[in-house]
Write a structure and sequence with these properties.
- By secondary structure, this protein is mainly alpha-helical.
- Helix 3 runs antiparallel to helix 4.
- It is globular, with a radius of gyration of 31 Å.
- The termini are far apart.
Length: 244
């Protein structure tokens, strides 16, 4: 004999049964929750993706877009030749160029890349640079052919990227980054009402920017041709392997 009353033993059995039933119920709830979690996870991910559009990188891009009309207004104020207004226009242009350096870096470093940023960032870059070049040429400070070469190259390469995107992405080269920096410095110097040796210096900086613009543009064309040929060859090889 164990000395344990029958009622106690029955109570113990019932308690164990209740515990087992409770555990089974909890397991069923957990499995139900696990089954429902993917849908909840997708909804959460979608919410995060929507919220990520308003990240710091995209806000800097939006700021650069908003600076374009402000820059044009300052550039053309009082006939476009007042040194004070030109200095304010230079400040707006400088802020736009600085945000261009930071928004892409922040997006890549902190995983803030969005579809909006991919589209808006190059548009903002071309808008502020194009506005500055057109204003300078319209005021007679910069020959129209320089504006045509720079803008033609930028728009042409952008179009070329879209044409070969099915075969791959043309990465930004060091020459391209140097070109962007040189263009920014040169245009900024032309926006300011410089005289004397500084006016001579800005001519040579712009000349270097034009040379880099043409050279890097031709290099992008070469890369696009190679990328397209390689993509066509890979597709052809894959097709032949499938047929075999």
């Amino acid at each position: 004999m164990t000395g344990v009353p029958a009622s106690a033993a029955g109570g113990s059995s019932q308690a164990k049964g209740a515990t087992a039933a409770s555990g089974a119920s909890s397991a069923a709830d957990d499995s139900s929750g696990a089954a429902k979690s993917p849908r909840g996870g997708k909804l959460t991910a979608a919410a995060v993706n929507q919220a990520s559009v308003w990240n710091i990188a995209n806000l800097l891009t939006m700021l650069r877009l908003l600076l374009v009309p402000g820059f044009v207004a300052l550039m053309l104020a009082d006939g476009g030749y007042d040194p004070a207004w030109r200095s304010l226009a230079w400040a707006a242009f400088a802020v736009a160029m600085i945000t261009d350096l930071f928004d892409g870096h922040l997006a890549r470093t902190y995983n803030l890349v969005t579809d909006f940023g991919k589209i808006a960032d190059p548009i903002a870059d071309k808008a502020i640079m194009g506005a500055a070049l057109i204003c300078l040429s319209a005021l007679g400070d910069l020959p129209w052919w320089v504006t045509g070469v720079i803008l033609g190259r930028e728009l042409g390469i952008t179009l070329l990227r879209f044409l070969v995107i099915r075969y791959g992405v043309i990465p930004a080269s060091r020459g391209g980054k140097l070109k962007t920096l040189t263009q920014g410095v040169a245009v900024g110097m032309y926006v300011l009402a410089l005289t004397g040796w500084l006016a001579t210096l800005r001519f040579w900086v712009m000349a270097a920017a034009v040379v880099l613009t043409v050279v890097t543009g031709l290099d992008y064309v070469r890369q696009a041709i190679v990328l397209r040929r390689r993509g066509i060859a890979e597709r052809k090889a894959a097709l032949e392997e499938t047929e075999a």
